[in-house]
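Section 5.1 Outputs to date
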Amino acid sequence: MDLRQLRDDDGECAALHDLGGDGPPLLLTHGNGLNAGMWATVVPHLQDKFHCYGLDFRGHGASQQTHERIPVDRRWFVAEVLAAVEAIGGSPALAAGHSLGGATLVRTEQQQPGTLRAAWVFEPVLVPATWDVKPPPSGLVEASRRRRLVFASVEEAVGRFRSKPPFNTCEPEAVQRYVEVGTAPQPDGTVKLTCTGETEASIYESNEQLDFTRFAEITCPVTVVAGAAMATGNELPPMVAPLVAEALGNGRLEILQGVTHFGPMEDGALVARSIIEHLS
């Protein structure tokens, strides 16, 4: 798998993985704390339709780190999507994103119209200005800062993640690849997560409430996807999905049964079928 570092103006990097395949380029973006490895069980079902590329945002996965504390203003994620689109062939591009990655695709097309030809976004974390809530969701910041970073081996890390939510419902290969891409070997033989708890928490804290009326400016086709929990749960990502779809100038909503907010890691074949249906 080919890997390329995309350097931002502040010296930080995003990492672009060439995941292979035949057809037009398709950019895949990940959620907060994750990396391109999260798409491991989706990509094999896409490769006969698309040439897939996975983006690791700054502070995630295989991206090189130059600051001790990584600047995570949302504008940098948009800049990294723009750099990745240019690297895979230029605008307009096809893209699919999860959570933070999906939200960044929406923000990118709003700020730079014409970047995307069409997009598929799974539960993008976007908060309406009209909601009487203050992001980030309660408890996420504290939990992120408490996360364990060092493990005896990749195998130990995989075992620990798979033993409890949210990864206990994910496909084993997706968790395995997420850990492989998202850890770095240490001098003492251990492995350390490349996305620190501080980085993840800072990204949650950088979220902001947005004027959804401006999403009408986005006229490229955007499919907003939510897990079935949308109908019964009270978590922000599935709740906001229909509002995003309705606000977009050319949006549509799809509900995928049997998956949660981590749907792309839970049922790769199901997610791939939806992406192909809407983007091919």
